[in-house]
Design goal:
With 152 residues, the protein is an alpha+beta fold. It is built from five helices and four strands, in the order βαααβαβαβ. Helix 4 links the parallel strand 2 and strand 3. Helix 1 runs antiparallel to helix 3.
Length: 152
């Protein structure tokens, strides 16, 4: 069994040791827009572990069950980047186009993150390049999306 980890997986950037940067990246991504534009509102933002193992009811970002950083707050994102001393962060993010939605997600995230002062450089690469980076953990700053084997 595999699951996709999309927008949140970019928190593995070069500044990953700085909690303010990770939080700013997360707050700069409008997951509702991604779900509505790419999947016509038929997608959900959920934790990587199936929610039924953690919660009695399906968690939502609006309800706060996914944590304080899984929400869209561009002004707060900018403040966190400034506080971290990186108001003009650049993230190199290779991705492989498993489907057209991968390119759509990369393009939307590029625009969303640009609005908070992050230059998200999503670059489509061939499967061998992408997979070798994914498997080795040796990618430039982030992966725009990644598949994980979950095995529940």
């Amino acid at each position: 069994m595999a699951a996709i980890c999309g927008a949140a997986s970019i928190a593995a950037c070069a500044s990953r040791n700085n909690a303010r940067v990770r939080r700013a990246i997360s707050l700069g991504v409008d997951r509702e827009a991604l779900m509505n534009v790419i999947w016509g509102g038929l997608a959900k933002a959920l934790p990587i572990i199936p929610w039924i193992f953690l919660f009695d009811k399906e968690p939502t970002a609006a309800g706060g069950e996914l944590g304080n950083w899984v929400r869209y707050a561009p002004a707060e994102s900018k403040q966190l980047l400034a506080a971290a001393g990186v108001p003009d962060l650049t993230i190199e993010a290779p991705y492989y186009e498993y489907s057209a939605s991968d390119t759509q997600r990369a393009e939307l995230m590029t625009d969303q993150l640009r609005a908070v002062g992050i230059q998200f450089k999503a670059q489509k690469v061939d499967y061998t390049t992408y997979n070798s980076q994914l498997q080795s953990g040796n990618w430039p700053d982030a992966l725009a999306g990644a598949y994980y084997a979950l095995g529940f």
